[in-house]
Amino acid sequence: MIKEVLKIYMERGDFFHQLILEHLEISGISIIIATIIGGILGVLISEFKKTSPIILGITNFVYTIPAISLLGFLIPFSGIGNTTAIIALTIYALLPMIRNTYTGIENIDTSIIEAAKGMGSTSFEILYKVKLPLAITVILAGIRNMVVMTIALAGIASFIGAGGLGVAIYRGITTNNTAMTIAGSLLIALIALIADFLIGYGEKIIKRRWRIK
User: Which tens digits make up the pLDDT trace of 65-89?
Assistant: First the structure.
């Protein structure tokens, strides 16, 4: 089977190269949008705590919906293709981003916040210079998990006409070509591992620069 998979890579190199680029595009856009929106929502519910049960409850509920079902629900509104895949992946990616941002800020020692207030810091200065730096390790952990999850979930996007490496998996399943299915799955796993390594490396640099243990 390994020889068959390697043979497919050799013979269909251009095909897989295109799928990899599509997979990175779909995943990348979803990750960027989820990071921005999730980060903002996480900060907002930490500042306005009465909204936290509502926001977290909604995201937790959506997270329980099977991915393939969510894709199906979105088709009547956004059609088939990459747009629907990006919307669905972004929705799924929001939960770890919101939860980790909120948790990271909430776990900060209140005495540190009070000390910053006592020194005359504004709410924005406390958020930017105290809360976010102290919460960064938890936030980065959320981003790391979210990135790996999004890259993996993007593999099912082909079932609603989107691109990416899921196309190879789908073709392999429908044509009973096990080697093609494995080839697509291995590349998704490889991309996820590389992304996890790069974010982990970036996390170490940030911790070193900010002198975080």
Answer: 888 888 888 888 888 888 999 999 9
Q: What is the pLDDT of residues 160-172, one digit of tens each?
A: 888 899 999 988 9
The structural domains of the chain, ordered by start, are 2-210 (1.10.3720.10)
**Do residues 182 and 67 touch, judged by C-beta distance below 8 A?**
no
Angle, alpha carbons 79-81-87 (nearest 5°) = 75
CB 212 within 8 A of CB 130: no
pTM, whole model, 2 decimals? 0.89
117: Cα separation from own chain's centroid? 34
pLDDT of 190 > 90? The answer is: yes
DSSP codes of every residue in 73-135: HHHHHH-SSHHHHHHHHHHHHHHHHHHHHHHHHHTS-HHHHHHHHHTT--HHHHIIIIIHHHH
Burial of 64 (0-12, 13-18, 19+ CB in 10 A): exposed
